[in-house]
Amino acid sequence: MYVRISAAIAAICFSSGMAMAEGAKLTDPQIAHIAYTAGEIDIKAAKQALDKASSKDVKQFAQDMVRDHEAVNKQALDLVKKLKVTPEDNETSKALSRQAADKLAELGKLKGAAFDKAYVANEVAYHKTVDGALETQLIPSASNSELKGLLQTGLKIFQGHEQHAEHVAAELK
Amino acid sequence: MQRARRFAAIAALWLAAGASARAATIQISMENLEVAPAVTSARVGDTIEWTNKDVLLHSATARNGDFDVTLPPKKTASFVLKKAGTVDYYCRYHPNMKATINVAP
Lengths: 173, 105
Known about the structure:
The complex is a heterodimer of chains A (173) and B (105). Chain A is 86% helix and 0% strand. Chain A has 173 residues and is an all-alpha fold. Chain A has a single domain, classed as Up-down Bundle (Ferritin), CATH 1.20.1260. The longest helix of chain A has 30 residues. The radius of gyration of chain A is 16 Å and the shape is elongated. Chain A starts with a helix and ends with a helix. Chain B has a single domain, classed as Immunoglobulin-like (Sandwich). In chain B, a hairpin with a 5-residue loop joins strand 5 and strand 6. Chains A and B meet through helix 3 and helix 6 of A and loops of B.
């Protein structure tokens, strides 16, 4: 399980590293797409958890994720509209979506407490990955100051989610 | 007798003035999942006014049950302190947002 998560993180780092190595610095439309995709992925995961989770705390956490990520993504959509930027699909977004689809399928096979544990563990790992990407790649690459600002706000929020997930994970043990 | 009455009137005025001067409104902001200031000193009768500057739903929920104020995105809500003591509170939706109010009698 943990090996698989690290492998997924390595794959994301590798694929985005590849994109960078090819000299294609991430553009604002790509960054917007990645950030939005990352939010959508967490909303989907949370909706699966609302359906399958048995612990009240896990359900509550999933509800918080849907609410927050929808709010942030709405803000992101408003901003790209204002800036007249069209989010552009790219290798990093695709890698994120592929891994998320695999994870949804994997978690879909679990039930009860096993599902709860796996979902929350993945939420910790996922937010860590996204926070890392925001900090080292997306925020430094963003050229528009409003986009950068939104990503910085997003980072704060997702760091909060990471701590929240860690707390829920500890409670489950 | 008259003196006593005058004294009582003056005392009442003083008390009223003192009370109104003392009841303050204290502002606390919630922005980027941080409560600022994280520690606040107040007195019984003061109003705490929280402003949520985020696009996210927050709450100010006292651990001892004294208050539970819901703060929709970009909104302000308040609560009048009724009891002395140290009250720890947090956001129900983001439990890592924590703060304290020290309420003097």
